[in-house]
Amino acid sequence: MSKLAQRSISLLFAGSIVVLLLASKSSITTMRLSPLDPSSYSNAHELIIRHVDLDWTVNFDKSTISGTATLHFKLLKSELQEIFLDVSDITISSVAVKTSAGEAPVDWDVGGTVDNIGTKLTIYLPTKTSGELTLVIAYETSPKASALQWLTPEQTFGKKHPYLFSQCQAIHARSILPCQDTPAVKFTYNATLRHPTEVTGLMSAIKVDSEPGVSKFQQKTPIPSYLLAIVVGALVSKPIGPISSVWAEQEQIDEAAEEFSQTADFIAKAEEICGPYVWERYDLLVMPPSFPFGGMENPCLTFVTPTLLAGDKSLATVVAHEIAHSWTGNLVTNKNFEHFWLNEGFTVFVEGKIVGRLAGNASRDFHALHGLSELSDCIKTQLADTPELTKLVVDLSECGPDDAFSTVPYIKGSTFLRYLEDLLGGPEKFEPFFRAYLNRFKYQSVLTNDFKQMLYDWFREDPKNEVLLERINWDTWLFGEGMPPVIPNYDRSMLEACLAHAALWAENDLETIKASPLLKQTLVSVQMIEFLAQLLEKKTIVDLSAEKLALLADTYGLSSTKNAELRFRLVRLYIRARLMDKMDEILAFLNSNFRMKFVRPIYKELAGWPTAKPIAVDNYNRVKDQMMTVCAYTVAKDLGLSDAE
Ligand SMILES: CC/C=C\C/C=C\C[C@@H](O)/C=C/C=C/C=C\[C@@H](O)CCCC(=O)O
Ligand SMILES: [Zn+2]
């Protein structure tokens, strides 16, 4: 973890920088900021936020949000004298304790900034307190708040109105409000949002009231801070199900409604698997192309990338994934991001079950096998220099969650659950346990041990399971590096055609390929994606030339495809073939969206091609201001640019 280990620390007192230290690796190698969460300063073992009232004004002219956050705490300890909160690039103007008698200002200071983590806000309580406590904090965010992206009208489809959106996971909520920015703590929230009258404001909550320029929201189900979300822009909506509408700019609304027409079916299957849906609404919002992820499970309003708009619903499984989060992640939440697999591995597992129920078990297994291809690619490329990040449970005491993010918790985690399901008697035995686990831990935050303990308690009811439970090598699954230690016995029927096509193109010259009867076989979109993924996995491809890739693109209609997963892989083949003639096409895809899943591997591959690297760096410098902070930061690292180290 050496490259990640360095966290620079600066001390600030009431806004002014006093000392700047660069912590040496050795002085902080075992630093854990708080007992519950290595990525948070909060003393959440001593008090917890139960409810937040936000009064926010969105200032497009300054690219800031200003207003107040009223934090309602429950104290877990008597005689508490200090409260530690997380902040990042926030300017605080006042902190007051609120009682029935009014508001009384209290002392506070900020200090101890750790790179990629943020700053500690200490609030000094005047009298020894116990029970409950309410703090009112008046503040303004920075134009560079890492959770926010501000778009000019020119950067939107409609070109008329500005646009603001947030992405708080994992630890960026601290850049939009002072809080205990740890998933160990859950709170309900109410918000009053003031914004220009011509645009619409939405949040990860139910809209309870609106008048021109003011929208009010209520989230009655407790959420961790990373699920706080806001969007303000020229948005319209279209109903797509009994509890669902899709939101987008006018130009994309019809396309989006069609692409995501299976939403209600996904919800129905998810309820069969997980239990009743508690969030009242499930709306979707199609984001601008700079949204850095495929989807974000913001409660009541999932955010999705426009790169899902393939035209044939082939990428809509991301919506099934986000729906599954309504239980796994949003109801039962990882206590800190070292146990992120409890959110993501569980969600991919449910996503697979939704696919299985709607399209059959062959599709479920194909989906899982495709996940393993993505995992293998990620381990060999993105994580080649940081094998410790291929563990299911990672150590975040030395690096920020954004640095540790990968597909490992998703795919290794879901593979582990499938292994457990197969071992312990299949879906018939495992699903009742799974539902009971969700029911037991709903509204709570959990660690891996909570899951393990419940699994043992449940399956030990039948003594015959003892011998099966003994077979589980928890240590290797949780702390072993690399690919999963056991690959379940998946149905490979849909994969075979992908392997055959990949072998054909990798092992043969043009004439042999042209004559192959395999070319008459039709592959569905998801098989096409997997076929290209398999081709990219090949160590050598015979005659990887412009002609061969032109024939490939032509044969499978790749040049004109709208499918971003296909374009992503085609572009990577162009780079592998060192096709400088294709640089415009490569850059066009690279600049068409800033979803990290796509742009990071492409930049990384360009960085490994000496002639192309300066072009990639130059392109990055030109467009980085259009990226979200997390994307700009991680791509800079992938390109080996020093300011990201
Ligand atoms: C083991 C990793 C530890 C911590 C990482 C946790 C969060 C990291 C952060 O960068 C935020 C991630 C947010 C993800 C949101 C949605 C994903 O499901 C998208 C997956 C990739 C994609 O499809 O684009
Ligand atoms: Zn997810």
From TrEMBL:
Note on cofactor: Binds 1 zinc ion per subunit.
Topological type in the membrane: Lipid-anchor; GPI-anchor
Gene Ontology biological process terms, A to Z: leukotriene biosynthetic process; peptide catabolic process; proteolysis
InterPro entries in the cross-refs: Aminopeptidase_N-like_N (IPR045357), Aminopeptidase_N-like_N_sf (IPR042097), ARM-type_fold (IPR016024), LTA4H (IPR012777), LTA4H_cat (IPR049980), M1_LTA-4_hydro/amino_C_sf (IPR038502), M1_LTA4H (IPR034015), Peptidase_M1 (IPR001930)
Keyword Manganese listed: no
Pfam families: Leuk-A4-hydro_C (PF09127), Peptidase_M1 (PF01433), Peptidase_M1_N (PF17900)
Signal peptide: none
Entry GO MF terms: aminopeptidase activity; epoxide hydrolase activity; leukotriene-A4 hydrolase activity; metallopeptidase activity; zinc ion binding
Binding site for a peptide: 167-169, 292-297, 595-597
Pathway where it operates: Lipid metabolism; leukotriene B4 biosynthesis
Source organism per UniProt: Anopheles sinensis
GO cellular component, one term: plasma membrane
Entry's family note: Belongs to the peptidase M1 family.
Protein location: Cell membrane; Cytoplasm
UniProt keyword DNA damage, yes or no: no
Official protein name in the record: Leukotriene A(4) hydrolase
Name of the top EC class for this enzyme: hydrolase
Predominant location: membrane
